[in-house]
Amino acid sequence: MKRTLIATGLVAAFSIYSVQAAEIDDRGARMLKDNLSHFLPDSARSSGFLTVRPAGDRYEVTYDIARLIETIDKKNFTVSGLTPFTLFAAPLNNGQWKLNSDSNMNFSVQGRAPDGKPTSLTYSVTDAVFSGIFDPAISYLRSGEATSGPIRMVSKSGTEEIEASFAGMNYSLGATNSATAGATDFHGTGSFSRFYERIATPQASPVQIRAESLDFDVGVEGVVAQNIQKLVSFMLELVKDERPSEAEIAELKELIRSAMPFFTSLSEKIAFNKFTVASQVGDIGVDKLNYTLTMTEPSEATRIGVGLGVEKISTPSGLVPEVYARLVPDMAEMEVGIAALNFTRFVDTLMEMDLSKPGPLPEAESERLGKAILDDGQLTIDFPKIIARSSLYDVEASGEISGYPDQKDRYNLETSILARDIDRLIQYFQGAAKVDPQFNQVSFAIMMAKGMAKTEPDGRLRWDIRFEDGKALSVNGQVIQ
To answer: Signal sequence span per UniProt (predicted)?
Structure first.
């Protein structure tokens, strides 16, 4: 949203250029305007898109994006409906700034895609309200609150159309001192209500996606904002140079090293509640659909993980044959990650390269970077939790697989599988074999596996499986091949 982008831009400018004002006056307004537009091209600065003026005990900052767009070569598109956006910034006695905005927005973009197809985009948001406290000591918002009324977007490209909307939004941000000395932890939560999306293409019937709400929770810990502030400030200055000098490149590399590791952990969780996909075949829904993203500190052993989870899956009557319907899990979770990524070596290798040349890195250098981030060229994928449960089974697995991307047959697998109610599942397959004889093979395979299992104190069966170098397979210590 324009409101959010402009507020973020204002925060970024405060992060880079220290703005202090004991009094609200014209001189302070000019200083603030210069600080906010310092990193922009001359054509943008002279367009008049930004004005700052005293307004009682605060500054009124107005962005006229339509004027800014006029400075861009826009032969293939036109923009209409943009109105000036105003944000108020009030200096506080403790050196922090109070930010406020209240706006509506409704604009459209029309043009042609590279293939000549007519394209258009309309976007609107009503009752968008933002307030926050910016703290120069952490170079970011110490706290923030944002809400809005209905949000709607329609995108068209030729005969294809995507429509998306929310009934409203709320968002809260907080910052606290980190356990890491001199660092800050940031945490944000929010929700979009009554999500709707419609996708229409000539090749298929329209698909509609709905959710009662979309909740999100994001956090980043251990951010040393001052080091990142110095890096961003220098980079904004550097982009003005068509060809940076060797001294500037050396300074950039030093600032990157100083800013590492950027953070100690990062996490994101998105949950769709009462999620439904409606199409020509009927409605497919889940009570809850979760997505997670995690990342540990960029270091010699970094892990990036993703997760998916579903609860109470429903399908149209007859879509899944009855004999298979009971095999659909009532709930399922999966966590998968890429582990042992050497970001420290990646950055060290990058810093050894010549970054003064324009354009992308040569292929050999890109390949060198790819090898630097992997430990001896080995890729490790872990799955700390995979769970599936229904009225017939309860299965959980964890483990990891490691190997060499350029040597497909060279890999190691270690996994542990725990399961309960195996007898009930065997009985089901034996009965289902009357409908589909192939289930006889499935029930026989499960009985074979049961015979190799260990029994845990809680009654679950356990299989510890190892597959070494793509050749030797063992289950609970018993060599199979």
So the answer is: 1-21
State residue 6's pLDDT score.
53
pLDDT at 8 over 50: no
The model's pTM is 0.84
Do 90 and 189 reside in the same domain of the chain? no
The first and second tokens of residue 84, run together, are 């000036």
Q: Would you say 101 and 87 are in contact if contact means Cβ atoms under 8 Å apart? A: yes
| Residue 43, both tokens | 């054509």
Question: Are residues 208 and 288 located together in one domain of the fold?
Answer: yes
More confident residue, 189 or 348: 189
The SS3 call for residue 83 is: coil
Examine the domain organization and report whether 18 and 107 are in the same domain: yes
Name the residue range of residue 84's domain.
Answer: 1-157
pLDDT of residue 350: 86
Q: How far apart are CA 40 and CA 50, in angstroms?
A: 11
Query: What is the chain's length?
Result: 481
d(CA 178, CA 409) in angstroms, rounded, equals: 45
Task: Please count the structural domains in the chain.
Answer: 2
Asked if 150 and 167 count as a contact pair (C-beta separation under 8 A), the reply is yes
Distance, first Cα to last Cα, the chain = 59
CA distances from 104 to 158, 187, 189, 202 (A): 29, 27, 23, 34
DSSP 346-389: HHHHHHHS---SSSSPPHHHHHHHHHHHSBTTBEEEEEEEEEEE
Residues 6 or more apart from 329 whose CB is under 8 A from it? 310, 313, 388, 389, 390
Q: Which of 101-105, 306-310, 441-445 has the highest mean pLDDT?
A: 306-310
Instruction: Tokens for 458, please give them.
Output: 């809680």
pLDDT score for 11: 52
**Domain membership flag for residue 472:** no
5 and 52 both lie in a single domain? yes
DSSP conformational letter for 456: P
The mean pLDDT value for 434-463 works out to 92
Q: Collect all residues with Cβ–Cβ distance below 8 Å to 481 and sequence separation of at least 6.
A: 471, 472, 473
Q: What is the amino acid identity at position 441?
A: Q
d(CA 225, CA 184): 7
Domain boundary, last residue among 391, 412, 427 = 391
